[in-house]
Every structure is written in structure tokens, then in C-alpha cells.
Design brief:
signal; mainly beta; globular; carbohydrate binding; lectin; Galectin_CRD; Jelly Rolls; galactoside binding
């Protein structure tokens, strides 16, 4: 913490991204603070027991934001928060073609209100928790060990993304 304070005070830049909203973009091996959207963060698979925690705020009057877990050629898990439809769409692609989408469940997101999403790989499915409460389960349709990036884009400000082995 002391070293971090000195480095920030000396104007040393962390990451290649410009700060958002006056914040400082910081990147550590498993945690990324204030990354700009869109952002792609490398990950080496999303096998059983791995977790991703994302803390963010939907932009005021924003329409949509997306969190994707991508393989080199496809999207293994697509989590698309749609304010304009008041739903969260889940899906994947195979050979670049969208598969069967899922839309059931409530819509817990509020413009301008901070959220914590936790994605947990458990026994062939991805559990998604919203503010500590189980929100949805998505049955994996592709090998989660092939996932190579976490992508966040759209109408959202990300405070942090934490990858847990």
C-alpha cells in the first residue's frame, strides 16, 4: 500500500488506459481497477471453482451493457443487461452463430446504482450472483477451459474486475 501511494503520487501510469471520471486505471495480475469500457481481460480458462467479480454502475439513461466470456473463436457465455427491454439475455455462439437465448428471471439493475456481479464456475454451469444473491444459472455449452478473455462493454462504468483462481 505504501509503495502504491508513492507511485500514484509520482504520476506513474498503471495500464495503457486513460482514467475514467477522474479516476486512475490500475491493473494487478488478478484485479483491474477503473478499466475503460470496452475492456478485454485475459484469463486462462474458467474451470470449476473459478470466480470473476465485477463491481460497476450502469450509466444514467444507458440502454445496455454486456459481459462476455470469450474463447479465441466464440463467446462461451454472453450476459447482456438490457434496460430497454428490462431483461438480461444469456447466450453463446458456436461457429460465430448465436444459439438459444435465455431471458427468464427478474431484472435487478437500476441506472446509477452500484452492483456487484459474481460469476462462479460450478459443476458444468455458471452461477451468477447479483449483490450476493443467486440471480441465474447458465448451463455451460462449451468447454470452459477454452475461455481466454473477459469482455465488458456498453453503458456501464466498471469500478473493478477481480479474477479468482
Amino acid at each position: 500500500l505504501f509503495l502504491l501511494s508513492i507511485m500514484i503520487g509520482s504520476g506513474v501510469s498503471f495500464g495503457a488506459a486513460p482514467p475514467i471520471g477522474g479516476g486512475v486505471a490500475l491493473n494487478f495480475p488478478t484485479e483491474h481497477f477503473n478499466p475503460p469500457a470496452p475492456v478485454n481481460i485475459p484469463i486462462t480458462g474458467f474451470g470449476h471453482g473459478r470466480r470473476i467479480r465485477i463491481v460497476g454502475v450502469p450509466n444514467q439513461n444507458g440502454r445496455r451493457f454486456t459481459i462476455n466470456l470469450n474463447t479465441p473463436s466464440d463467446t462461451a457465455f454472453h450476459f447482456n443487461c438490457r434496460f430497454d427491454e428490462r431483461c438480461v439475455v444469456r447466450n453463446n455462439t458456436r461457429n460465430s452463430a448465436w444459439q438459444n437465448e435465455e431471458r427468464y428471471g427478474d431484472f435487478p439493475f437500476v441506472h446509477g446504482q452500484i452492483f456487484t456481479l459474481k460469476f462462479v464456475a460450478v459443476g458444468g454451469q455458471i452461477e451468477v450472483y447479483h449483490n450476493g444473491r443467486l440471480f441465474i444459472r447458465f448451463v455451460e455449452r462449451d468447454d470452459p477451459l477454452n475461455i481466454r478473455t473477459v469482455q465488458v462493454e456498453g453503458d456501464v462504468h466498471i469500478h473493478s474486475i477481480h479474477i479468482v483462481n
